[in-house]
Toxin HicA
Amino acid sequence: MPKLNRLSAKKVVQKLKNAGFSETHQRGSHVYLKSNDGEKIVTVPMHGSKDVPIGTLYNIVVRQAGLSVDEFNNL
């Protein structure tokens, strides 16, 4: 199984937008994105310039967005 690399929250949001998600709103330090079909909502924590931890990134990519690690890495 391929690995996820640590990324900044801005890069995660950019990759999700390339995958067909659009930013709906921001509440505090969390950005919410919705899939174009409206069925999936993804929450990305934006805590300064810190990288998103691997476990959190895996949760965002696989569980919330429904993408495989390969699909996310290729975006």
